[in-house]
Amino acid sequence: MKVAWIQDYSREYGGAELSNKSVVAVGFDIGHDIVGITPSNFRVGVLRDCDVAIVNNFFEFTDAQRSVVLDTLWGMGKPYVKYEHDSRELKRKEFAMELFGKSRLNVFISPAHRKNHVEALGCEGLIFPLAVDAEFFRPLSKVDRKAGTAVIVGGYNKGGKISRSIEAHIRQNPGTIFTSVGHSIPGASKVTPILPHKEMPRVYSEHEELVHLPDFFCAGERVVFEAALCGCRVIGNGNVGHLSWGYDLSDIQSLREILRKAPFDFWKSVEAAASRKRAA
């Protein structure tokens, strides 16, 4: 298929961007022609000529670009799939109901993520785990995993994704050595700068636990699967969307197979959605 992938691409190493690179790589491998449509690479011809569009993050386009996209999707009836990675669309509910309601397929990244959107928007959709390079993230045999250690990866700021809950967890576990990647957190024993993505298997392999305790709902952050694939025990809470899958994260082999297969299942669903007529 000719695929137009519509996304803001505001951050080179954001979670959605990294995950999309993994999905797109699989799409290329199985023969699809995929071209990114972004605010800085806005190719109208590609959009109009594609067999199907994938709408991911769609917030940073200009009003004129937004009008062209919606005219193509809604006015011309171009088949499209809404591939949702977070919960921002719920903040513009009226538009979201139309965006999800007119798609051929909606895709969410965890059961809890889908449930929230179904309840708020009345839409339906499939769920696939967030795309993670399941072969890249492995326990490193030459790295010693230190007993009594935990790592906290990104996301921390006062009042942000991780603040009160993680601070409380640190206070309640004085015997654990906490390393924070990216942020200075009260009580953390060690702070490192944000690291290149390629360095993360080593970081996970050095620690016994990943502590991920967001103060509000997160659809499915990739650090949960990355750390589990590298042998970390995951300490999470009810706001971690990926935990709603109910996977045994300690069964690395089974988890790796689930995550390896997910992008292929995603593309099969996109192919099926593109080939069928839109419901009246």
Overview of this protein structure:
The chain contains nine helices and eleven strands. The chain is of the alpha/beta class and about 280 residues long. It has two domains: about 150 residues, Rossmann fold (3-Layer(aba) Sandwich), CATH 3.40.50; about 110 residues, 3-Layer(aba) Sandwich (Rossmann fold), CATH 3.40.50. The strands form two sheets. A six-stranded parallel beta sheet has the order 2-1-3-4-5-6. The radius of gyration is 20 Å and the shape is elongated.
Topology:
Blueprint: E1 2-6, H1 15-29, E2 33-37, H2 44-49, E3 52-55, H3 63-75, E4 80-83, H4 93-101, E5 105-108, H5 111-121, E6 126-127, E7 146-153, H6 164-172, E8 177-181, E9 190-192, H7 200-205, E10 207-211, H8 223-229, E11 233-235, H9 252-275
Parallel strand pairs: 1-2, 1-3, 3-4, 4-5, 5-6, 7-8, 7-10, 8-9, 10-11
